[in-house]
Amino acid sequence: MAQSTPSYDALTQTYDRLHKLEHLQSIAGWDQAALMPPGGAEARAAAMAEMAAVLHRLRTEPALREQLTKAEQESLSDVQRANLREMQRDWRLHNALPEDLVQRAHLASARCEHAWRSQRPANDWSGFLENFRPVLALAREQASHLSQAFGVSPYDALLDTYEPGMTAARLDAIFGDVRRWLPGLIARVRERQAHEVVLAPKGPFAVDAQRQLCERVVRELGFDFAAGRLDVSTHPFCGGVPEDVRMTTRYRDDEFLGSLMGTIHETGHGRYEQNRPRGLIGQPASQARSAAIHESQSLAFEMQLGCHPGFVARLAGRIAEAFGPQPAFEPENLARLLTRVKPGFIRVDADEVTYPAHIILRYEIERPLIEAEIEAEDIPALWDTKMQELLGVDTRGNYTDGPLQDVHWPAGLFGYFPCYSLGAMYAAQWFAAIRREMPDVDARIAAGELAPVFDWLRSRIWQQASLWTTDELARRASGEALNPAHFKAHLERRYLG
Amino acid sequence: MAQSTPSYDALTQTYDRLHKLEHLQSIAGWDQAALMPPGGAEARAAAMAEMAAVLHRLRTEPALREQLTKAEQESLSDVQRANLREMQRDWRLHNALPEDLVQRAHLASARCEHAWRSQRPANDWSGFLENFRPVLALAREQASHLSQAFGVSPYDALLDTYEPGMTAARLDAIFGDVRRWLPGLIARVRERQAHEVVLAPKGPFAVDAQRQLCERVVRELGFDFAAGRLDVSTHPFCGGVPEDVRMTTRYRDDEFLGSLMGTIHETGHGRYEQNRPRGLIGQPASQARSAAIHESQSLAFEMQLGCHPGFVARLAGRIAEAFGPQPAFEPENLARLLTRVKPGFIRVDADEVTYPAHIILRYEIERPLIEAEIEAEDIPALWDTKMQELLGVDTRGNYTDGPLQDVHWPAGLFGYFPCYSLGAMYAAQWFAAIRREMPDVDARIAAGELAPVFDWLRSRIWQQASLWTTDELARRASGEALNPAHFKAHLERRYLG
After folding, report:
1. B177: left (phi over 0), alpha (psi -120 to 50) or beta
2. Residue A381 burial (CB < 10 Å; 0-12/13-18/19+)?
3. CA within 20 to 30 Å of A365's CA: A236, A331, B215, B492, which one?
4. Cross-chain residue pair B243–A25, CB shorter than 8 Å
């Protein structure tokens, strides 16, 4: 017999309404980044801020507090109880923030992000600072509210919004360990690759052909184009809604691997979203577990699978079909291209070995920035010092390829960057588990049989959504909570094996 | 000294919020028609229905009634008083309808419209009927509520939502007059054109070249692409927001004039929206005056200007540049092509002489449909009879090119169709006024000087927005309220002159 759960039911109705309204906010956000002409920017920012206020009011309706308490006493199934836990988390996060602060933060970051789009190519750091200072001030204000509500440090509070359970202390340990072995590993790989002959693909590469190639690969990776799109934006991302996933990439006609691999990356995000449990859609428990788990999917696609020698050999054929054959497209050369390690300026263009250095740098800047130990003006000098220290490159005066390269800070996202490297670590952990369970998986990938990998990800990650805490999800999927040793082992196996 | 107007000010804040939230609804609606993959349809319909409910709740907040009454007593400027009048109209319209009815109607029409997109090409009338019956039932229910609230007939109540002040009695007189002279005029024009030699353009016409041609013409017609876009959808329309106008068209590679002239049509709508008084944006008085006045702009662009022999001569050059020269692109031949009168199935493809027949037919079906004098099942037989009677064409069994051809009824829009012909009449009236004031305007158009026409439209129509009633707007612009004699004179001058 069905139990009577009036408070829980009322909560699910509120979250269903939020889901529907957030649908419009998501699509408008995607449009803003992918299609909107500049004249619409001011009005769009105001519209989205107004909607953010509407959503905030729904999440802070006084009735919710009592419903959350009463629902605790109702007879709930395990799934309902997990959903209630996620509702409580969502409620705590949003009720720590005053409505006008949420609205001001949305407005400031929309303005800053829009201006950043032209300030970045213009290398205009001082112009950027004007819009960025209010974004930072509002992020600190938000962090301070969250910090007081949860009794953790301001940065931990922001981190927790993307990566529940993660802390600066845990990151210090994880990244501290990486700092110990990464420089040596980079040096050994660079030495080993020093005399490798790698042919560069000869362009130009027609954008239309690139688009067709990307769409073909995305389709072969299982993305459902009847429930999503692939378009173009300055900073590639995966947005939209689970029922209509909007991925973006960007094309240059002198280079195609960046957009191809970037598209494969977004496809990992896209498939996670398209495969969240449909029966729970609209409910917090159906959400992707965390930012790092999301990145573990995009990096599983881009790095574990996309740079897998067996996958690369098949990709080489697709590339030759798209642009005509050339020696650079031979499988072995392509694999060398995709695993070439070279310290550089740009995070999104970085190889998987130097990538963690970019993240550690951002973590070491954004944590003190939020804790008000440093100011926005201090970023460039710190950036220059740390890039020199971690990767030996000189970034002085080059803001375009320095602190202006990412959309995150202009958009008011602090605490997100660490999730990329945590995602790389989880991705390595998933593939280590897949190999233990399916010893022939590498041969199957080489044979073009990707279904076993997708089935594993679907059942262990995508369909599990937020039914468990992150640590529990990882344990159920792979037998243990986050263990960065798998990432180190993956790099050593692929680059020094 | 500024007067204290607390109630009026509170109302402007509510309308400002509505404007911002409607921004998201508009962009999502445009996306739905232009870009959305089929898998997103159900979720989008649900999201937009939820948003419609939010907007409805804002418009029916109990405080508004008292604010509207109190604002009447406040010391308001003429513009504020006009704005208050439009707020009252908006309030009356929306407070006549229960929230759940609004939501059910949005959901039903979104579903029906989505299914119609595949049912139309499949000629699937019976499949369409299943989704259309609830749309009609809900439209009648809405009409009944509005009818009771305003003390007018159900159809007049719907008509008034698009065309304030218009009634079926007034339409009966206007369309009754057209019925008297139109068949004779069509016959005389057909006789005169019977032995005219008209060369058909030879295709195919590359869609990319068409797109570039359309964008060039749209730009030359003054549309601001920094605050708008031109994309593709099944049924061309002009949507978006005044700050970011989204026009659509559709391309076929065997024919280009339809999409070119359709795009010119939408540009009229687009410029009206882009030029609404910016200081009032968000307030009801800044809205376009009515559907017929809106259509008077699109038809001023498409018919009065777009088919003007002086404009056509210049357009001919653009066309030859787009597709290469051919005899059919000679100015005189192109003018004959654009003024060729031929009864046909499709309203949007109709010439301006037979077009009113399509409207009269729809008016004569949708009025009794809403008044429950006939049912949805009766449409095809009536359609066949009236098409035979008005235009002498046989539509039996051809639903695709018959009652399934328009998006209006599937989308729940009843009372809109008459506005197209009223718009054609107003457009002729504007150009008659322009010619009286600027006797050399035809020579200036032929010389490519379009600014005088645009300046007239901007100052007399666009910038006047809803500051006056429709009749007063027309009197201030052209010296008289709607006078259909200008339309008849225009047709006689162009087709028999």
Report:
1. alpha
2. exposed
3. A236
4. no
Inter-chain contact A20–B47, Cβ cutoff 8 Å? yes
pLDDT of residue A102: 83
Tell me which residues of chain B have a C-beta less than 8 Å from any C-beta of chain A. 17, 20-21, 23-25, 27-28, 31, 35-40, 42-44, 46-51, 54, 224-229, 240-241, 243-244
Residue reference for tokens 């577990």 = A289
Confidence (pLDDT) at A2: 59
pLDDT at residue B462 tops 80: yes
Chain-centre distance for alpha carbon A177? 22
Q: Could you give the CA distance from residue A257 to residue A266 in angstroms, rounded to a whole number?
A: 14
Phi, psi for B472 (deg, rounded to 5): -70, -40
Asked if B209 and B323 count as a contact pair (C-beta separation under 8 A), the reply is: yes
Contact A226 B48 (CB under 8 A): no
Residue for token pair 């398209």: A274
Amino acid present at A457: L
Mean pLDDT of B146-151: 92
Distance from CA of A410 to the nearest CA of B (A): 22
State the average pLDDT for chain B. 96
Residues 6+ positions from B450 with CB-CB distance below 8 Å: B220, B221, B222, B305, B311
Radius of gyration of chain A (CA): 23
Q: Which two three-digit tokens encode residue A264?
A: 């494969």
Separation between Cα atoms, residue A455 and residue A461, nearest integer Å: 10
How far apart CA A201 and CA A415 sit, in angstroms, is: 37
Structure tokens at B98: 């229960």
ipTM rounded to 2 decimals: 0.90
* Identity at A205, one-letter amino acid code: F
Q: How far is B23 from chain A (nearest CA, A)?
A: 6
pLDDT reading at A358 higher than 50: yes
Does B472 qualify as catalytic in the annotation?
no
Cα separation, B142 vs B383, whole angstroms: 25
A113's enclosing H/E stretch is helix A99-119
Query: Which tokens is A193 given?
Result: 């690759």
pLDDT, tens digit (0-9, with 9 covering 90-100), for B233-264: 988 999 999 999 999 999 999 999 999 999 99
B489-to-A12, B185, B262, B386, B474 alpha-carbon distances in Å:
63, 11, 24, 26, 18
- Catalytic residue chosen out of the listed positions B113, B266, B273, B295: B266
- Confidence tier at B23 by pLDDT (50, 70, 90): very high
Place B2 in a pLDDT band, splitting at 50, 70 and 90.
low
**Chain A environment of B40 (Cβ under 8 Å):** 227, 240-241, 243-244
In order of A6, A158, A443, the CA distances from A88 in angstroms are: 16, 17, 45
Task: Give the Cα separation of A265 and A250 in Å (integer).
Answer: 13
Annotate A200-225 with DSSP letters as a single string.
Answer: PPP----HHHHHHHHHHHHHHTT--G
> Using the 8-state DSSP alphabet, how is residue A350 labeled?
-
- What is the number of other CB atoms lying within 10 angstroms of the CB of residue B447? 11
**Spatial distance between the Cα atoms of A384 and A30, rounded to a whole number of angstroms:** 33
DSSP-assigned letters across all residues of B374-402: S-GGGHHHHHHHHHHHHH----TT--TTT
Question: What is the rounded distance in angstroms from the CA atom of residue B238 to the CA atom of residue B247?
Answer: 4
Q: What is the pLDDT of residues A218-263, one digit of tens each?
A: 999 999 999 999 999 988 999 999 999 999 999 999 999 999 999 9
Residue from A266, A273, A302, A366 carrying the catalytic annotation: A266
Long-range contacts (CB closer than 8 Å, 24 or more residues apart) made by A70-76: A70/A6, A70/A7, A71/A5, A71/A7, A71/A8, A71/A11, A74/A3, A74/A4, A74/A5, A74/A6, A74/A7, A74/A8, A75/A3, A75/A5, A76/A3, A76/A5, A76/A8
B44 vs A23, A39, A50: nearest CB = A23
